[in-house]
Write a structure and sequence with these properties.
Elements: E1 4-15, H1 18-47, E2 51-54, E3 59-64, H2 67-85, E4 96-107, E5 113-114, H3 116-126, E6 133-136, H4 137-143, E7 150-153, E8 168-172, E9 193-196, E10 200-201, H5 209-223, E11 230-231, H6 234-237, H7 247-254, E12 258-267, E13 270-279, E14 284-294, H8 298-312, H9 319-324, H10 333-346, H11 352-368, H12 373-389, H13 395-412, H14 417-429, H15 433-446, H16 451-463, H17 467-480, H18 486-498, H19 502-515, H20 523-532, H21 536-549, H22 555-560, H23 567-580
Parallel strand pairs: 4-6, 9-11, 9-12, 10-12
Antiparallel strand pairs: 1-3, 1-4, 2-3, 4-5, 6-8, 7-8, 12-13, 13-14
Helix pairs in contact: 1-2, 2-19, 5-8, 5-10, 10-11, 11-12, 12-13, 12-14, 13-14, 14-15, 14-16, 15-16, 16-17, 16-18, 17-18, 18-19, 19-20, 20-21, 20-23
Length: 586
């Protein structure tokens, strides 16, 4: 007969809005789809022992012998796609719907599949949410309890050309042990979210830009200390700098219920600040204020703004938060000017030159206000970076400077979150991994709304042997910073790799590499991942591209920057890089 019947798990995937995407750029859309098949779908299917029956056009039909494998594969594909969505503009994002069913199919002589099992899977895919996974009751009965997902019963929706009722479940796979999520977490409904837009420089003098930015920086830092408030990170809100904005659209893009906007004019010894808090849902004004004060009162202006915001958004403050709500970087205007000058350098990226310039500005600020815990904490962080990368001082000298500033910062302010992050770095250097993890958790408790703190915490937690906790920290960072910097992907990929979540790690590291093409970032992790999962050609290609971007790269130099609790794992990673073609060095 040339055909045979069998019971199989069928996965059907289809692109949402393919016609619209093709209408915008047919050639580019097809090229992107081909890359997604080669980089996401086919490797993930192979890792879960599936067979791609059809993969042309904008869809895919895949057969599995195990329903558990089929559902796990579907979830991994959508997680990988979620990472890629963050890197693409909305009009160029490709989203899949995926349906899974367990049923009777007919296998043709050429390997094609026909029958009710295929038809029902296709219809379930049609009622799935974009970016989601929907499964039949028959499939979920086999997979329940064996996959990291919860099911929402959607009843028996009408499925086109399917006469009998089929019960469908939509899967929710964001939660995994504790608060770790598969993607950026939506804001909790009982926690208001705010985006603080860059303030307008109303003076007309470009030299005053850093004053405006510094004021916003300090407001964001203070708000991030409040557990009852979700604060969109500076990196995301400053993407709107210099652009005319619709506050309602800003709120929608950043997931913020409230938007603060304002302007600042500095002239001589006086400063004028206008601010308004807007409900992004309807564009209505919630609160507005105008401050016209002596420049020395800039700090009381900040206190007034942050207290008013907490009040208007009905944030319930603990006693400790009430104390931390007061501005506390420095009370010296000249020192503050140097503080924000250093921030401007630091915000340009962590490089040798930028950190040197930031350090110089903050040392001048500290000379003007030696009692500033914030300045001591950030200088401790600068010297800690120097200890890691060897930019200026020898490591012992840099670590000694780190420790001196750190001890002074904590003596001045035992609740300084930046000091605890710098302390975590110091503990990491000294291989005191449990203490590093403790300091990281303390920093996160003191600055629960800081995306950068959560991102940095991910790095230290991974190195301290807590990769699943690190993944949760990375997801939190991405939630707080929807337009997050590329290095967030690097820390997430590292955590996922150490957690043994190979396909997710590959997706994160690929996204990191694609965000910064030609930089070499993410490629060492990719080479290790591919080599250890038996994908030797891809490992060699990652190594080749790494060396093309950074010709002097050697495993020996790489090891100088790695301090991992699991020393055997680090040795194995180094061996994998050498096997992939990276020079060992000496």
């Amino acid at each position: 007969m040339g055909e045979s019947r069998m019971l199989a798990a069928i996965l059907v995937a289809d692109v949402v809005g393919y016609s619209r995407l093709a209408g915008i750029d047919e050639e580019g859309t097809l090229a992107l789809l081909r890359r997604l098949r080669g980089q996401v779908i086919e490797p993930t299917v192979a890792a879960h022992r599936g067979r791609v029956v059809k993969g042309a056009g904008d869809g895919a039909l895949v057969e599995f012998r195990s329903v558990v494998d089929a559902v796990r594969c579907a979830i991994e594909v959508q997680k990988a796609m979620a990472l890629r969505h963050a890197e693409a503009p909305p009009e160029r994002r490709i989203e899949f719907r995926i349906g899974v069913h367990l049923g009777d199919v007919v296998e043709e002589a050429d390997g094609d599949l026909m029958g009710d099992g295929v038809n029902i899977a296709a219809r379930i895919e049609g009622v799935c949410e974009p970016g989601g996974v929907a499964v039949s009751e028959d499939a979920w009965r086999q997979a329940e309890g064996k996959v990291d997902a919860q099911a929402v019963d959607a009843g028996a929706p009408s499925l086109k050309n399917i006469a009998r009722p089929v019960r469908v479940f939509h899967l929710r796979f964001g939660q995994r042990r504790g608060d770790e999520r598969a993607g950026p977490a939506p804001p909790a409904p009982d926690k208001p979210a705010i985006a603080v837009l860059p303030f307008e420089n109303m003076s007309g003098d470009p030299e005053q830009d850093h004053f405006c930015d510094g004021l916003v920086d300090d407001i964001l830092t203070t708000l991030s200390k409040l557990a009852g408030l979700r604060v969109i990170a500076r990196h995301s809100s400053f993407a709107f700098k210099g652009r005319p904005v619709d506050v309602r659209e800003v709120g929608k893009q950043l997931g913020a219920r409230y938007v603060l906007e304002g302007g600042m004019r500095k002239g001589g010894a006086r400063v004028r600040v206008n601010v308004q808090l807007i409900d992004a849902a309807d564009g209505s004004h919630v609160w507005a204020e105008r401050y016209d004060r002596a420049l020395d009162d800039i700090f009381s202006i900040q206190d007034g703004i942050t207290l008013a915001l907490a009040t208007e958004m009905q944030v319930k403050l603990t006693e400790g938060e009430q104390a931390r709500l007061r501005y506390a970087t420095t009370s010296n205007v000249a020192a503050w000017s140097r503080w924000i000058e250093g921030l401007a350098h630091y915000r340009r990226g962590i490089t040798k030159d930028n950190t040197a310039a930031a350090t110089a500005a903050w040392e001048k600020a500290l000379a003007l206000d030696p009692s500033s815990a914030a300045l001591h904490a950030m200088l401790a962080w600068m010297h800690m970076l120097d200890a890691r990368f060897g930019w200026r001082d020898e490591r012992p000298q840099a670590m000694a400077k780190t420790r001196a500033h750190l001890e002074r910062a904590l003596a001045l302010d035992p609740d300084n979150a930046d000091a605890y992050l710098a302390s975590a770095g110091l503990m990491w250097f000294e291989r005191r991994f449990d203490e590093a993890a403790t300091d990281v958790r303390k920093a996160l408790a003191l600055a629960p709304g800081s995306a950068d703190a959560a991102n940095l915490a991910s790095f230290y937690l991974t190195n301290s042997g807590r990769p699943e906790e690190a993944v949760a920290a990375s997801r939190k960072a991405m939630s707080l910073n929807p337009n997050y910097p590329a290095n967030y992907l690097g820390n997430l990929g590292f955590a996922l790799r150490m957690a043994g979540r190979v396909e997710e790690a590959i997706a994160a590291c690929r996204a990191y590499d694609e965000r910064l093409p030609g930089s070499g970032f993410g490629l060492a992790d990719l080479a290790i991942l591919y080599r250890r999962s038996g994908r030797l050609d891809e490992a060699a290609d990652a190594a080749r591209r790494l060396l093309a971007a950074r010709p002097a790269f050697t495993v020996a130099d790489w090891l100088k920057t790695q301090i991992l609790r699991d020393e055997a794992r680090l040795a194995d990673d180094a061996a994998a890089l050498v096997e992939a073609g990276v020079p060992a060095g000496g």
